[in-house]
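Sync notes, pocket subgroup
Present: LS, DG
LS reminded everyone that the earlier model was apo-only. Rerun requested with protoporphyrin IX containing FE included. Inputs:
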Amino acid sequence: MIVQSIVEFLGANAAETAFCCIALLTLYSLVFGYTKPQVIDTVTNEPLAVIGLPTSLPWLFPKTRARLSSIPNAWRWVQEGYEKYNKHGKAFKVHLISGDMVILPQEMVSETKNLPSNVVTIKSLEALAVRWTFDEYVNADVFHVGVIRKDLTARLAAVTPAIVEELDLSFKHYIPKLAAPPDEKGWREVTMYDLVLKVVARTSHRVFLGEELCREEEYLDLSIKYAITVFPTGMLINCFPKFLHPVIGPMLAIPLRILRRKARKFLDPIILKRLALIRDNVPESERPNDLMQWLIEASLARGGGFATVDAIAVRVLTVAFAAIHTTSLSGTNTFYDLAYLSSLTPNDAYDRPPADLLRDELLQVFPPPHEFNKRYMQRLYNLDAFLKETLRLRLVGATHSERLVAAKGGFTSKSGLYLPCGTAFAFPGSARLADPDVFENPTEHRHARFYRGDVAGADEDVDEIIYTEKGSAADKKLDRYMVTVTEDFPVFGMGVHACPGRFFAANELRILVAWFLLRYELKPITTRPPPTWFVCIDIMNTTAKLHIREREAMKLE
Ligand code: HEM
């Protein structure tokens, strides 16, 4: 009851809550911010240049005012610093609301991307306050990353029929529920993000947890709500000094714990049933073959507190968190681009509406009855290139690959930049992707830059080549493939922390867009729903409505 009241109070007074957090953070940074060891260029012995300090009354709490002003302006500062410093091989610093961040030049990507975790750690563990928003076990060992990278990717072809089936059932289930009734011309208005989120959540859960739970509406909603609540909770916790986290963390994570308790009503019986199968030595071939099973087996191998029902349930929610929103945002952005670019055709990049281009390719590769399979999905060169271009333009914020220096003695780069222990650093994201020296016509959506249907060997199993790293580094044709991570394509991160779920996400996205384009039309829109910048994050518009219409031929099938 008390907890519910607190949650309701915080919800009803969101602005005041945010203000209090900002005030606390300001106070904290005032006290501790000035005493930290500095990032130094050891060649010149100079500290780093800072972008974003106030120019009026520069002596009046400049750092604190910069932090507050970073909420609407940080992305502009990174853009400015990229031109002024990064492009000349130099780093610079910004004071963000979440703390100081050093933005390194591109030249330092290769020397930092594969550093071990005792030198550099992934910042998201701290930024999301994983210890409190998930649990200490997820914080202590992210072995689910290996399970996704190895087991899920290796079994992608095997799970594709389940993805195809569930996606078809989900679209057919959610379109009538979420779209308005058709107008006289058959167009139905729908909030595209809501539709894509539901379809992606259900389809992903089919592969993660099996048929039993993926269609349980209440569980799906809980898992989505959990994921949505993690971000603000993590941010809120990080507004407080570290030494207060053991007190503040559990308190602020109460709403998450309530959601978790509700989700466990669904997860626990399944986990217990599966643990019993293992205990009773049921042969592996007779056990379920999905992500939950692989996670359970990996948790048992890890042993101790990692192997409890609670810890396994939290890890399942962690994977859903990492997977569902990123894929839904990518899918929705693709539909926004398809609808928007259609209103601009013909132009230099598209001589006809891109939806027609992609649909023709689909009909060629998968003629009726349109039976999708993973191997042939890779022959959808136009679709792949279109998806990759949407990811390039829409899925990278002002920075990427945020890391924290963990080595006690700090880290000194080859160029002599000394980053003390605890320094947060990242690389410029959107600024570099919009740099004409890196991409031609960088701000235009041009799928042709990633089209790979014209290269020899395009029919091989490219996932296999990239996953097993059999391709030669000089093999530039692989760079154009959707999930290839290159230093100029940071959508899936870099190096040791590159997204382990990207092969799964790409497969799911291809099927999602292909299913839709075969069966539905999108009404062109003349304005693309604008994103909002929050510090360094480019937040997609999730409330925009599109008009969709079922194709006549498909109604008859
Ligand atoms: C289009 C969809 C996706 C995008 C754009 C995306 C993007 C990313 C990025 C940029 C990172 C690196 C973060 C960093 O360097 O700080 C990352 C990491 C991660 N992603 Fe994805 N992701 C997607 C889908 C998925 C899916 C489907 C899964 C799970 C099945 C997943 C699981 C993870 C995990 C567990 C990590 C952490 C890796 C680590 O700590 O080493 N992602 N993702």
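DG: Residues 122, 124, 142, 145, 148, 319, 322-323, 326-327, 330, 395, 401-402, 491-493, 497, 499-502, 504-505 surround protoporphyrin IX containing FE (CB under 6 Å).
LS: The longest strand covers residues 399-405.
Action: DG to write up.
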